[in-house]
Amino acid sequence: MYKANQPAVVFEKIDGELIIINTLNGFYYSGTGNAVFLWEAVTSGWTPDQLKTFFVSIGHPFGSTTVIADYIRILLDESLIVTVEGSAEEKQPSLDAALIGDDIPVLSKYSDLHELIELDPIHEVESDMGWPVQKKG
Amino acid sequence: MDLTGGIVKYANRISVVIPAYNAGAYLKESVDSVLGQSSEIHEIIIVNDGSTDDTEAVARSFESRVKYCSQPNRGIAAARNAGIALAKGDLLAFLDADDFWTSDKIARQMAHLLSHPACDGVFGHMRSFATPERADEITRLYKVDPEAAPGCHAGTLLVRRSSFDSVGLFSEDLKAGEFIDWYARAQRKGLLFDMLDDVVMFRRIHGNNTVIAQASQINSEYLKIVKRHLDSRRAEALAAKQLDNERKER
Question: For the domain B2-213, what is the CATH superfamily, name and number?
Fold first, then answer.
């Protein structure tokens, strides 16, 4: 299972667009459509296997491709999500399949403001992760 | 450029804007660092943003060496904007009331701007430090890296007034990140900024820094700034494309 790499990573869906900021390096990301859907699913505890099963159950092409694994790999590589221990709860398909398009999830990465964003301290990130952050405990 | 009594004078006039909110404890050191510059400063404008401490008394203690104004508390963007409205210089610099400059900050940056006429503004490096009276507490709570870091920060910037005006004032609807928003707009305008290797500012970490004390609100503001920046870039790209298409059709 995975969760968003908080508090270093902050995110919000604004007007349907997912905005993610990694405050440790100042990079930011945006995505729409399935990039949003998969982000919300992954960060709310859906495992890759559960997602695959879900897509198979609704006859969606993501059930037979590596799209989900590829997307999760990107999120991990960019340190936007982290692995968490624990057994995955059974997930019931609760989303209307008709709302899910078949567009490949695309997360655009931007670095043009990183020198400014990374300059400001953010609460409660680990003490070895940037300046001048509040230590835990 | 002219040398008078060890102070470098330039044909350009430099205005320094210092917004201050409950900064009585640190304001004197901040203003002293501006008065102690090795180059001439035309004016120092202190904007008291509705402080409830002795900020006004500290500011007024500098008498005619500073221009003082006050307003109800409206945030740092509005306070800086109020100072900019009063500023008469053709170069602008900003300093937060809890930070201070190195004595040659303006001289180094003026030299750079004079030799780089295409450059709109120049930043410098900065160092952070735990405020001495609470050093133990601050270093226990926060990691304060004393290494010099590139300071893309309002307090390290010296910018041509005409360039600043082409971007516009700070966005007063933002509670934080107003400088990131301004810099993003400057980038979209195509302004050119350089970064000096020299340390030009010391940033005080005292635990009540806006970015520390209001972290969750700041995260929300940063997300809003980024979304606004992306939307503006797309709109500008679309407008440019439409203009290009119209030209081709003619």
Answer: Spore Coat Polysaccharide Biosynthesis Protein SpsA; Chain A (3.90.550.10)
What pLDDT digit, counting tens, does each position of B177-217 carry?
999 999 999 999 999 999 999 999 999 887 666 555 556 67
A39/B contact by beta carbon, under 8 A: no
Structure tokens of B116?
């780089």
Contact at CB, A134 and B212, closer than 8 angstroms = yes
CB-based contact A112 B150, cutoff 8 Å: no
Residue A30 to residue B230, Cβ atoms within 8 A: yes
Helices (H), B161-214: 161-167, 178-189, 210-213
Q: Is the pLDDT of residue B90 over 70?
A: yes
ipTM above 0.85, yes or no: no
- The residue-averaged pLDDT of A29-40 equals 93
Mean pLDDT of B49-68: 96
Contact B103, B37 (CB under 8 A): yes
Quick check: A86 contacting B, CB < 8 Å? Answer: no
Phi, psi of B93 (to 5 degrees): -135, 155
Exposure on the CB side of residue B80, measured as CA atoms within 13 A: 23
Q: What is the pLDDT of residues A6-28, one digit of tens each?
A: 988 999 999 999 999 998 899 99
pLDDT at A122: 39
Contacts of B247 (CB under 8 A, 6+ apart): none
**Residue, of A66 and B133, whose pLDDT is higher:** A66
CA dihedral B110, B114, B120, B123 (to 10 degrees): -30
Q: Where are the beta strands (DSSP E) in B74-113?
A: 91-94, 100-101
For chain A, the domains span 2-117
B218 close contact with A: CB closer than 8 A: yes
Beta strand A9-14 pairing with A17-22: antiparallel
Domain edges within chain B: 2-213
Least confident of A34-38, B54-58, B120-124: A34-38
Distance from CA of A32 to the nearest CA of B (A): 12
Q: What is the pLDDT of residue B176?
A: 85
Torsion sign across C-alpha atoms B174, B177, B179, B180? negative
Q: How far is A124 from chain B (nearest CA, A)?
A: 9
CA distance B172 to B187: 19
